[in-house]
Design brief:
- This protein has 725 residues and is mainly beta.
- It has a single domain (3-724), classed as Maltoporin, Chain A, CATH 2.40.170.
- The protein is globular.
- 40% of the residues are buried.
């Protein structure tokens, strides 16, 4: 299926729906991510998507993939490393990974070790998610090449009326992972104090793949505890003090059958059993002072102090037998890979409106200071069960070790954004941000044990200036033209800067690359946006160029050893068209339509990370009393990119994997049984399609033996109950 063939009829449907409407009162949608202060969505310069609490509850969102699967131009890839399957990261308009800024309540989300992915925020804590598409460094600094995702957690006033209490209990079950969840939420809004407490407990197993899959993911049994506490003290009519505590603990046990079997290099070994025991926690605390005091410098603002601790462990144990000249030798291997990161900082945001003679200036300016400490120790040893002797030279490396030195990172920034209202019809937006970035590695004996000879660490003390310029002009009520130019950058992180080690078994080495520079992006966007009393629509074209992509490459051979390092290699250009429509057909029936076509090239060759063309059709019906609501979506996906280069290795070249287009259907229903009790049902992949998401399998060969491990689930059901009192 070529989705471009449906583009023309889809546009016809788009305009028919937008004209076949009835009058209805609508609530104006407000977003913050585009300007760092509240702006009506239909007045935003650029493309922004938002996901409301109602939408997340209706679709029974349980993880990152569920949350973003109805946002056009955005996808979530799934990975599988050493038998551990996880959501790897977010892609926005063809670019993702660490090139997307992820924030929670305005603070950068912590990194995660391989095997945990980016599911480091409990979705039940959120009241809204906002996605900024396109370079975002002028507002949010480093990592904003492709865009930004902002998680916004619930506030007491969102739930409890003044002087009243709010309580709810919810429980749900997801068939695809056998996940059971129980959550408790309490809130109160008083004259001087507002408070909120939410506790969520999850238990889940491995993802169940489609019945057509010839493989199954390794068995997994995990649980997670999340706690969010918020307290807001009204110190005076103009000053509020807020305290937020957010804690998440998770652990899981794996039976890693996929890692068992015979291996013949560097020794003949049979691995008979492998067990994984992973655990981690992420603790976040924020103290925010919000104030209003109209003076020459600001009308209102906030100062926020934050701290965040992330500790993750990935433990793997092996039962093995080594074969040599005599009888097999029983061995027990133990691996403990850790990742620990702390983030501390302060932000200040100030807002000021200046009413000039002819121009109104809406100013947001401020500063951010952030200090990050990272360490990634690795422990590994093998015990001979006959002699009790321990071996710490395994797989060509000496243990314990660190392939990355302990690192201190300091970020300091100053930003300024001005939305100038030239008249009632035209506004211009200008923003700039100065970022200072320091990376200071602190090597120790564990890092030096496998470090290549004559390897000089990379210390970074750099700065970047990012700019944004845009406009919006309203031709008439409900019809406007907007355009923008925005810049993004990503400073070299602790891995690309100083990942370094030597493997003596496979005879290769990774060394530090001198002169590594930040990645850069420039984005152009032009769009047309319209709205009536009961519908809204937008059409946007975009062109984003990316330079100095950081990637690893082979630099040569030294005494027969392959040497790799990171460098600024690639140039990428991505262009596309995006259409979005939401409309009320009647008082009880709403429709939505979204469409995205994207193409890209990397150094002149077709870019494999580009998601296929996609269209999303939605229909939602509510009963006259609003107690029953049923929603359905058709997700139409085109085929993967053409003309992909073959996958080549030591055994020759194999054609690259290509996927054909398909359509999947999801249905969601909710029924309010009584004023306090609501039941929800979700049926995903209603037609039981057998398929892969391109974002998860891009770059693989057509004969990849593990391909079926990335297949999506077949038809699956989620059910939930929520009781409010």
């Amino acid at each position: 299926m070529n989705i471009k063939s449906i583009f023309k009829p889809s546009l016809i449907i788009f305009f028919l729906i937008s004209n076949f409407i009835y009058a209805d009162d609508t609530v104006e949608e407000i977003v913050v991510i585009s300007s760092k202060y509240p702006v009506p969505l239909d007045e935003v310069v650029g493309s922004v998507s938002s996901i409301s609490l109602e939408d997340m509850e209706t679709r029974m969102v349980s993880d990152l993939s569920d949350m973003l699967d109805k946002t056009i131009g955005v996808s979530v890839s799934r990975s599988n490393t050493s038998g551990r399957s996880y959501n790897e990261g977010i892609t926005i308009r063809g670019l993702g990974g660490k090139r997307v800024n992820i924030l929670i309540d305005g603070v950068r989300v912590a990194d995660a070790y391989t095997g945990y992915g980016r599911d480091v925020v409990e979705v039940d804590l959120l009241k809204r998610v906002e996605i900024l598409k396109g370079p975002s460094s002028a507002l949010y600094g480093s990592d904003g090449l492709a865009g930004a995702v902002s998680y916004i957690t619930k506030d007491p006033s969102d739930l409890a009326e003044y002087g009243e209490n709010y309580f709810s209990i919810n429980t749900s079950f997801d068939e695809d992972t056998e996940q059971s969840k129980v959550g408790f939420l309490a809130a109160r809004t008083g004259e001087k104090i507002e408070s909120l407490l939410q506790v969520t407990v999850r238990e889940r197993s491995e993802l169940e793949l489609h019945d057509d899959s010839s493989m199954a993911l390794d068995p997994f049994d995990g649980e997670q505890l999340s706690v969010l506490a918020k307290f807001k003290f009204n110190l005076s009519e103009s000053v509020d003090l807020s305290i937020t505590l957010d804690s998440q603990e998770f652990e899981g046990d794996y039976v890693l059958g996929s890692q068992t079997g015979m291996s013949y290099f560097p020794a003949v070994v049979n691995t008979s059993a492998v067990l994984g025991m992973d655990d981690g926690n992420r603790d976040r605390g924020t103290v925010a002072l919000e104030f209003s005091n109209e003076n020459r410098f600001f009308d209102n603002g906030s100062i926020k102090f934050f701290t965040q601790e992330t500790d993750q462990r990935q433990i793997t144990t092996y039962s093995k037998q080594s074969f040599g000249m005599g009888p097999p030798t029983p061995l027990a291997e133990y691996k403990d890979y850790q990742f620990n990161q702390s983030i501390d900082g302060v932000t200040m945001d100030l807002f000021k409106t200046i009413n000039g003679a002819d121009i109104v200036h809406n100013l947001v300016y401020g500063m951010e200071i952030e200090n990050v400490d990272v360490e990634r120790p690795r422990i590994r040893y093998e015990t001979n069960l006959m002699t009790g002797m321990q071996n710490t030279f395994l797989g060509g490396e000496f243990y314990p070790n660190k392939t990355i030195p302990d690192t201190e990172i300091e970020r300091q920034s100053f930003f300024f954004n001005n939305r100038m209202e030239l008249n009632e019809k035209t506004s211009i937006v200008f923003g700039a941000r100065y970022d200072s970035y320091e990376l200071n590695p602190q090597p120790d004996a564990l890092y030096a044990i496998n470090e290549p000879a004559n390897n000089n660490l990379l210390y970074i003390d750099d700065n970047e200036l990012s700019a944004k310029l845009g406009f919006i002009h309203e031709f008439e009520d409900g019809l406007s033209l907007f355009g923008q130019y925005a810049e993004g950058f990503r400073a070299p992180d602790f891995q690309s800067a100083n990942l370094s080690f030597t493997n003596l078994a496979y005879y290769y080495s990774v060394k530090v690359s001198p002169g590594l520079e930040p990645e850069e992006s420039k984005g152009f966007e032009l769009g047309l946006r319209g709205a009536t009393d009961n519908s809204s629509w937008s059409i946007a074209v975009y062109d984003n160029s990316y330079d100095k992509f950081i990637d690893s490459y082979m630099t040569g051979m030294v005494m027969g050893m392959m040497v790799f390092e990171y460098g600024n290699l690639d140039e990428v250009d991505i262009t596309g068209l995006e259409v979005d429509l939401k409309t009320d057909i009647s008082d009880n029936l709403q429709a939505s339509f979204a469409f995205n076509v994207t193409s890209g090239d990397q150094n002149g060759e077709e870019l494999i990370s580009i998601d296929p063309d996609e269209a999303l059709l939605g229909l939602s019906w509510s009963s006259p009393n609003r107690n029953l609501r049923i929603s359905g979506y058709a997700n139409i996906v085109g085929g993967s990119p053409d003309h992909l280069a073959p996958s080549c290795g030591r055994s020759g070249c194999v054609p690259a994997l290509k996927l054909s287009g398909l359509t999947t259907y999801d249905v969601y229903a909710s029924y309010r049984i009584n004023p306090n009790l609501i039941a929800r049902l979700a049926i995903r992949n209603l037609s039981d399609e057998s398929y892969w998401n391109w974002s998860s399998v891009k770059g693989k060969s057509s004969n990849d033996p593990d391909l079926d491990l990335f297949m999506e689930p077949g038809r699956n059901i989620s059910m939930g109950l929520k009781y409010e009192f």
